[in-house]
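Aim 2 progress. For Peptide/nickel transport system substrate-binding protein, the working sequence is reproduced below.
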Amino acid sequence: MRRTVIVALALALAATGCSSGGATKAAGVLTVGMPNGPLTENHNPFLPTSAAGSLGYRYQIYEPLAFVNNTRPAQDPVPWLATKWDWTPDYKKVTFTIRENVKWSDGKPLTAADVAFSYEILKKWPALNNRDSLKVETATATPDGKVEVAFASPQFVNRNKVISAMVIPQHVWSTIPDPTTYTNPKPVGTGPYELKSFTSQTVTIARRAEYWQELPKVPEIQYTSYNDNTAQTTALASGATQWSYVFIPDYQKLYVDKDPANHKLWFPAGLGIHGLWLNTTVAPFDNAALRSAMSDVIDREAIFVKGEARLFPKLESKTGMPLPAGDSFLAPEYKDAKFKIDVDGAKQKLTAAGFKLEGDVLKAPGGKPVTIELTNPSGWSDYLTVLDIIKGDLKKIGIEATVRTQTADSWTTDFANGSFQGSLRWTNTGATPYEMYQNIMDGAEIKPMGQTAAVNFGRYNNPEATAALAEYANAPDDAARAKALAVLQKIMVEQVPMIPTSAGPIGAEYSTKNWVGWPTEEDPYGPPQATLPNALQIVMKLKPAGS
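Predicted structure tokens for this construct:
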């Protein structure tokens, strides 16, 4: 699930009608909050827009075959419903060994047929396949109780998504005429929790009587959906919410200082970034020297401190690689390539490329002044602050920038259709940098202006980049992948197809007053968000404070 602070903010701004009051905290209850507005009862675990998806409780009911730590993607996955998985050398097939003695919450045993069905349903019903469209060819339960899942193309870049797929009971879901519209009123999972109650504001799940491993220490989890970021922040500050994922502009004053001993937050970076996307079909932004010069004058420290309130991790590598998540992927030649403000260097690049700075106006080689319109939704306050910083920075090299706000719907449409000059947005993230770079520069995915793009929103067309992405995805070994990745990093540094501004956070706020065992920088066993699959890992590690 790719969820950013910006997405949470957008959801909050779009939501109306929910009480801003906090949920009361009963003894032994873990309270989770999100600023998502009123809830409609829908427990379908495949749909990110369902209550189960938007609040995250689907991951306490339904379990994956393995857990992947996207804050440290080079780490080995943690076995869960699968005890082992073996890939063929070409990454076109994986064989799972399924854990024994696991039961569904209705008492029936988990079988290999359930696991095979969980992949086959993604093939039969593409609308359920929100795991970046895994191209499952076949999924088969073998006579010895294992499961073989085959693909038409190598899945090295998707391998972590494949092994962390959610498992559902065949005896329930095979009877559903259309699982894409199924609200799943009585969820049956292998996880340690069951649905207890539902209202339009609060969902409560309770610990099962038995589970395939030691039961978690948390007897109940109460999920409350607040009307907006302000209400959610108030609930965090008062202690009504113990765990959340919400953008807090002045988090030290509004949250941490309310209980410094217990109010914590950790916003680590995964392998995704936020940045200034430029429409490379529009002159002069098709000029790499101009894009590089623009990047050279952007003050990322100001963006980190003022724009993103230190919640979005600082981005330092000119390759766009977030660190430390990307440490193992950096090409040797770019280990020390760091962003720094270099106005003089930017001017030299522009002069060499035929641009002229006349007074405080930069003119393109044809003599036309360089201007840029920067757009983003009106409610996205942190992005608009960043755009204002960028606007001031670009004046240092004579570029006149204007900022125009839109509704979120209008911006989404225009951005995807290419009706923009410059705009802030996030990238995809994954187990490797492939998804980030593919999102930015895959020429195979270019859509004509006016058609909706899913990636490569800047319509950047570089055959070398497209070839390197294909080589990486289909590489036979690590050496070939490293070679292709080095090419992509070189293009990112020298051609600047998108201007990186900050790392993409996968963070959360949480309280240690009643529960301890949360992931931290010192113990980064998983991303801390309550809406990500690793939320179950976190709950399994929590224990009462002082115990």
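The chain has three domains: 29-61+191-268+506-544, 66-174, 270-504. This observation will guide construct design in the next reporting period.
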